Amino acid sequence: MSAGHGHGHGHSAGAAADKKLLGGALALILGFMIAEVIVGFAAGSLALVTDAAHMLTDAIAIALALLAIRLAAKPPAGGFTYGFKRVEILSAQANGITLLLLAAYFVYEAVNRMIHPPEVKGALVLITGLVGIAVNLLATWLISKANRSSLNVEGAFQHILNDLFAFIATAIAGLVVLLTGFARADAIAALVVAVLMLKAGIGLVRDSGRIFLEAAPSAIDPQALGAELCAIEGVVEVHDLHVWEITSGEPAASAHILVAEGLDCHQIRIQIEQVLAERHHLTHSTLQVDHATAATGEAHCSDAHGVVHRSITTAGQAPGPAIPPTH
Known about the structure:
It is a multi-pass membrane protein. The chain crosses the membrane at residues 21-46, 52-73, 94-111, 123-143, 164-182, 188-205. Residues 223-291 form the Cation efflux protein cytoplasmic domain. Belongs to the cation diffusion facilitator (CDF) transporter (TC 2.A.4) family. SLC30A subfamily. It is a single chain. By secondary structure, the protein is α+β, with helices and mostly antiparallel strands. It has two domains: 10-212, Up-down Bundle (Alpha-lytic protease prodomain-like), CATH 1.20.1510; 222-310, ANL, C-terminal domain (GMP Synthetase, Chain A, domain 3), CATH 3.30.300.30. It is built from eight helices and five strands, in the order E-H-H-H-H-H-H-H-E-E-H-E-E. It has helices spanning 15-43, 46-72, 87-115, 122-144, 151-180, 184-212, 222-230, 265-280; strands at residues 2-6, 235-247, 250-259, 285-291, 309-310. The protein has a five-stranded mixed beta sheet, with helices on one face. The two termini are 25 Å apart. The model is unreliable at 8-13 and 313-327 (pLDDT under 50).
């Protein structure tokens, strides 16, 4: 029997740089948000108030991302055997849910204003929108330089990016109101922003949900991976194959491998670890490798979790399709 553990914990060497970039973006967002709230109420613009509220969530998103980076850097302790890496995913999911809730609220408000359009001061909306574009361009650029493979950082980036789109829509609405007096343009701009928020929110909730449910990374097909491992010379069966993500960008795998009698379990385990690392970037793997017993027609483990992948049988037959577990 051979038990192997391939290590590859993805500690981010650029965590300090990410914190500086996120901190700079946070300062920009907070400063402009205060000014926008004042101007938004003075101009009677839902689009500006929408943007200001979105900027508040931007600030919260960045603050959560900074906190998550700090907590994720803590080493494993006590019952937290992976440390606090999934705090980053909690942050990403919170950002996604916030975007969805705000989108629903702004759709409601925009529809009301489409029916009963208030007076909107187009000049103030246009000027604020243009300044907002400049501020958010800088904030977006700062966060884009951080490690966006982290779902946590990506969540903050999506907030800022959507706010940039919101200010573009707001500036266009302000120009339309200023030139034509069409007040409903403000509500239409809010609707456009709400749709963009909805799209980003769904993506964040979906991706963070996959990690919480310990689904395989989207780039890895567990069924194909099981068949690939069975194709390695000497491997008879693969079961209890699990592939998941500890946090975004840090996949892991575990499996029970059966090899033919008389072969070197340790050597085959090393081959499997190389395949996992080099072809699938699964550098964090835990493998239990045993010799297969004489053919009895029964599964090695009666309670195997998931699909059982089998290679050549002792009778020398060609490999058949993967079979489901017995339970």
